[in-house]
What we know:
This protein is an alpha+beta fold.
Amino acid sequence: MSLRVSDSHHVKINQMKKLLHLLQRPINISYLRLCIGVGVFIFISKVFVLQLTSGVGDILGMLFIDFGTLILAVATLIGSLIFAVRYFKREGIKALYPLCVSLTTCVLLFVIPFGAIAIDIDFYVHLNDREKLINEIQGSGPVRQASEYKNVLTRDRVSIERGEDGQINVFFVVFSGILDNFSGFIYRSDTMQPKRNDFNCDYFEIKEMREHWFWVACN
């Protein structure tokens, strides 16, 4: 009888040890997944920042995403460092995996040109809608106010003007900054770069996206 009790006691102890082992072991995997998830979230937020901030107040939304992702990356890095120090003795080299992921996220956050990538993505994602408006303008006779093209208006704030040589210029304002700074895509029916007085703007950045299309930043 005492032998059975003793065996049963040892079995329960072994079961408890296995249970504790199973409960402790996934900590490394769970935190590693968390770090990977945070990294993916940060990269998606930075790449699609123009879509995420559209209609939110532009500059406030942009600042929220920029500083929010930076704070999140640093917080995850600090947490990974604490995790590595606390669990290195038990987990060994595996305790450093979350730290490696978090450190890589922070480095890539400053190395990858997210701004240029976000501009390219916004341009090609919404190009079809913008071209519909261009076709409507060019095929509807005299140029009207942008608000009159209600059936093909895009999500952007749109300005339309006819140049001195009869060409049509359309400004799709994607982002409004502080004071009078704003950025977006300009379509010109000719192939010339936007001129200084187009849309009463002083351009400090002009990037050709494709024929007739330009990304500009101005004030």
